Amino acid sequence: MDAWLSHPDDVQAKVREWQATSGDLLQVEAITQVTGRPVFALTATDPAVPEDAKRKLLAFVPHAHEPAPTAACMNVMNMILTGRGLDGSAAPYDAQEVRRKLLVTLIPDANPDGTARAPVKWWDGSQYTNEEFWAWMRGPDPQTGKMWKRVDLFDVREEKSLPERIGVVYEPISEFEYVEPNRHPRSSLMRHLKRLTEQRPYDALLDLHQTEFERSDRNCMVILPTMYDEQPPHLRDEEMTWAHEIVEAWRQAGGRPIGEIKPLGYTGEQRQYFVNVWGPYYQQYPKLTSEVQNNNPATPPAQQQLLSEIAITTTLRRLMEGREP
Questions:
Q1: What tens digit of pLDDT does each residue of 278-325 get?
Q2: Measured on CA atoms in the order 21, 22, 27, 30, is the torsion positive or negative?
Q3: N-to-C CA span, the chain
Q4: Which fold has domain 8-115+197-320?
Q5: Domains in the chain: boundaries
Q6: pTM above 0.85, yes or no
Q7: Run of H or E including 95
Q8: What region, left, alpha or beta, does residue 322 occupy, with left being phi > 0 and alpha being psi -120 to 50 degrees?
């Protein structure tokens, strides 16, 4: 696991090292959480090539209880900057070509405060059942001991029944308020995305996640946007073709993907969160969500990381070849 780097202290140390060694190949932007931890947006490219001539990827990891995509982003960024993985292995592509042809922005951990509160570096199913894992995710309900409710924003002064501990999924945005990063515009993630997409037009947005795939023999899947049926036809076509390429790359690497590619079946309030926060992005950008199995011995941490990396590298290759997205 030499290539696994996900704890915020380690991420921050590696970013400092890259800043000292990578010169103008790397741009580092950060939003500081109320707890003092930086939420990094890392952009790698060759500044000698005009930005207008490049395809552009923005990939991000919203959730603190899903650390494999964070480790994947850190390893991919090291490859783009140095040509080597964090374990010293050669990158599976020409790093100089990536930097010449692409501009790549990664947000490896949108809630480092939550990640730092997790009891483990990765979730492999050996220490916590999924029920226990979910209680770490959202916090234990004081009445049942099981997972507390899912909300976009809550204020500890107003909640009648707070969890016994704040779940790691929630990001503190003030002394009293917490948000789920991909469901509220005041989160560090959504603030970064707003600023970044105002700076430049990205060609693809890749949303990196993990889920448990309980009672399933599958360990990865691609999800289309919640408002897929309402997107412009050219975006729907791009997303479907792109999604099939990721699924095929997973299969070739020994993954067990779900073959059917569709949006999640959210309804009511849960769907409305995504409409409110992501609606404008759905109308402008091709966007996919990758899900890789979490907290299950059937998919060890190294494979969790590899499958997350494949979603990124498949997208990089697609962009370098000039195909949409």
A1: 999 999 999 999 999 999 999 999 999 999 999 999 999 999 998 554
A2: negative
A3: 32
A4: Aminopeptidase (3.40.630)
A5: 8-115+197-320
A6: yes
A7: helix 95-101
A8: left
